[in-house]
Amino acid sequence: MSKQIAINILKQHSQRATFRRIAVLEFLMEQAKAYSLTEMERLLSINIDRATIYRILQIFETEGLVIKMIDLNGTCIYMFNNQNHNDSKKHPHLRCKKCDKIVCLPCLPNEYMDKLDDFEINQIYFLMEGTCKECLSN
Amino acid sequence: MSKQIAINILKQHSQRATFRRIAVLEFLMEQAKAYSLTEMERLLSINIDRATIYRILQIFETEGLVIKMIDLNGTCIYMFNNQNHNDSKKHPHLRCKKCDKIVCLPCLPNEYMDKLDDFEINQIYFLMEGTCKECLSN
DNA sequence: TTAATAAATGCAACAGTGTTGCATAATTAA
DNA sequence: TTAATTATGCAACACTGTTGCATTTATTAA
Lengths: 138, 138
Description:
With 138 residues, chain A is α+β, with helices and mostly antiparallel strands. Helix content of chain A is 41%, strand content 22%. Chain A has one domain (2-137): Arc Repressor Mutant, subunit A.
């Protein structure tokens, strides 16, 4: 049961397992998609305020539970950071504009890393948006 | 004289060379940096409204004179698209958070392009933010 | 050069997202 | 169960993007 998994994750991170935090975490764990505050407020089946989602996601981001990205409209979107997702090595993402699905791309080759050494990088952000195969065929 | 160059560019693109358009284009041509609407409103030495800059940049983007990106705050930033800048082949950019300087990175390797074929990409957006060598040494 | 036409601009207003303070509700610890 | 702590909802605000409309500016025709 994914609800119990969500509770355990919160406990492991020394965070209170409240009704709303469980709901948000469970929602994001369900699929490899990224959502904005507004989308979550609409899609979550519980009553929850935008400010609450905002603060919950801030905590989740600090704890490394979610990855925050910015879509091409400039809106913040959040994705669950599961074990398969290689967060330690930064990499680009593809996002389907229709179904919100996120696909990870390989890490960057060395010719990039050399250039990056010139910078003191504090944030790397790569996002491509398009339409995925499944959505194209529908 | 860069003002005359700006006028010529506007004429080549069949756009009216108004006082404000010349100023905006000249400003962006001066350096390889990217600015937001608000920054331009502040930094331009002329009186100009945010809405006007907004509409001017819309035209410039359509004409391929500027490249629009989104910084890590979700704010749109605009950079002059000069001849050296290989716009036909999409590539990532590095931006210095202190001096706003933009550095182009190489085009993406084939292993990326293969994955991209699965998507019908309508927008590619890569941006990294950090601090450049010069700013680090100051 | 001037008048008529077309387009650009400023102002004001609004929408959407991010963000915060504060009173209240929920959770935890004693 | 009660006291202390924390989470939440509500309201408000800041900032950016965006648009309508009246006015100014630039272009075209005479």
